[in-house]
């Protein structure tokens, strides 16, 4: 690959990213972000806008002093005081850059700058020249370049290069461009501006129409070799192009994007988490590369494919971006292949009939529960194993409970293949349920333990109930799990009762212990 195919990654999380309303970071937080950006191999870190406040100045200066590898840039308007302040802030950097910008579009010139085209051309020559007197590395940006007539933009770029700008950034400030337009803008400027080859061209895209990454790559196809982007796509309004998406697009599609960049992708997940934590902006679950679901699969057909060969449904390896492993999330869309794999992971080997029963109960559970955790599956399988071959089974339970009346339970049990239903009251719904059991299966066992605990967190968590029954010096403990505590209680009671009955049919000399 030739040197011209190198893409320079310019991260502006600490400047444009911080401009997101509510994303302000403290000095300490900015230092942490700068450190990881430097470690991951970002070429240029835009550390802030030094004239904006003393805090911003201090952050840029500190980052400039501490950063080992990356170029440190400070932003400045086309105003002497801004440029001098930026120069002062990056003075201590191994490699510093002043990034100065001015509007070029008619709407900005008329309404914001209140300047003519000729005045702005003079300002460019003057301010880029001033920056260049302070430092060798000067970037000039044409704010709102994509809404600027191409002839005038050519003259502005020419003036900036002539005054000493080494990087020319043509931002899509308001996220208005389409990929073809953006590519064509770079092609035209590079073809028409004298000495265009003396500068590196740069893209800076906003995501107002969701095109920031596509536009950035289109700009590169048009000849740009620097990409300005942010971690998690943080930035003004809908944000900037996301660094992690750019880096992984270049790596993953090297067949059609023949460029190299020096960012080590293993840091991407860690950087994303850090920026999310310090900015307070959560990362959406389905965000490309760094979203919680970017390497997670729930549907059976995809899980089946993943188990056979990960490339069936994944175009990147999770470990390449710092994610430990693909996760096969168990849920209502999962199939038998994934369920069996999960059971193996959890250390269960069960026969085909028990497997089918457990799978059916898992599907029922997943229909009722948003997240099915490993603990849920463990509870379900333990229950399946424990109740295999049992004489009595819970078929249905309806409970009426509340203030002002006794609890009522309508219970159907399968006893040796016969379904029997009884309605009973009690001191609360659990007492009513246990009374119904006693009515269907009369017995003299005493309840000596009743315990409930939640298998996982959340209001839809499964309850795991333990029940211990004692009779004639023998005891048996049963467990039941369900999202409904009352159903879990009935199952636990029945499980204990089945065991007690089984034990009572064994010879007397066998000592019975709690299971
Ligand atoms: C596309 C971008 O992301 S641009 C960067 C945006 N980022 C920020 O604005 C964050 C930091 N900004 C700030 O802290 C403040 O806006 C400051 C310190 C820069 C300026 O504050 P103030 O002097 O109070 O001005 P205010 O912000 O109200 O208005 C901006 C002024 O800068 C002018 N201006 C805007 N861009 C430029 C530019 N590139 N070059 C020169 N002047 C500019 C505006 O025309 C306006 O000037 P006016 O006061 O003569 O009308
Ligand atoms: C300051 C410039 C580069 C900018 O952020 C933009 O135009 O979006
Ligand atoms: Mg911007």
Please characterize this protein's 3D structure.
This protein has helices at 27-40, 54-66, 80-90, 106-113, 117-134, 150-162, 179-192, 212-221, 243-252, 268-279, 300-308, 336-345, 352-368, 374-387, 429-440, 485-504; strands at 8-11, 44-48, 71-77, 96-103, 138-143, 167-172, 200-205, 226-229, 296-297, 327-328, 392-400, 407-415, 418-426, 446-454, 463-471, 474-482. The protein is of the alpha/beta class and 515 residues long. Helix 5 (117-134) packs parallel to helix 6, helix 13 packs across helix 14 and helix 15 packs parallel to helix 16. Acetyl coenzyme *A binds at residues 16, 19, 49, 51-52, 77-79, 101-102, 112-113, 143, 173, 236. The site of acetyl coenzyme *A has 15 residues, from strand 4 and helix 4. Residues 393-515 are annotated as: Regulatory domain. One of its GO terms (biological process) is L-leucine biosynthetic process. Keywords: Amino-acid biosynthesis, Branched-chain amino acid biosynthesis, Cytoplasm, Leucine biosynthesis, Manganese, Metal-binding, Transferase. It catalyses: 3-methyl-2-oxobutanoate + acetyl-CoA + H2O = (2S)-2-isopropylmalate + CoA + H(+).
Structural topology:
Blueprint: E1 8-11, H1 27-40, E2 44-48, H2 54-66, E3 71-77, H3 80-90, E4 96-103, H4 106-113, H5 117-134, E5 138-143, H6 150-162, E6 167-172, H7 179-192, E7 200-205, H8 212-221, E8 226-229, H9 243-252, H10 268-279, E9 296-297, H11 300-308, E10 327-328, H12 336-345, H13 352-368, H14 374-387, E11 392-400, E12 407-415, E13 418-426, H15 429-440, E14 446-454, E15 463-471, E16 474-482, H16 485-504
Parallel strand pairs: 1-2, 1-8, 2-3, 3-4, 4-5, 5-6, 6-7, 7-8, 9-10
Antiparallel strand pairs: 11-12, 12-13, 14-15, 15-16
Helix pairs in contact: 1-2, 1-10, 2-3, 3-5, 5-6, 6-7, 7-8, 11-12, 13-14, 15-16
Bound molecules: acetyl coenzyme *A, 3-methyl-2-oxobutanoic acid and magnesium ion (MG).
Enzyme class: transferase
Domain Pyruvate carboxyltransferase: 7-269
Function: Catalyzes the condensation of the acetyl group of acetyl-CoA with 3-methyl-2-oxobutanoate (2-ketoisovalerate) to form 3-carboxy-3-hydroxy-4-methylpentanoate (2-isopropylmalate).
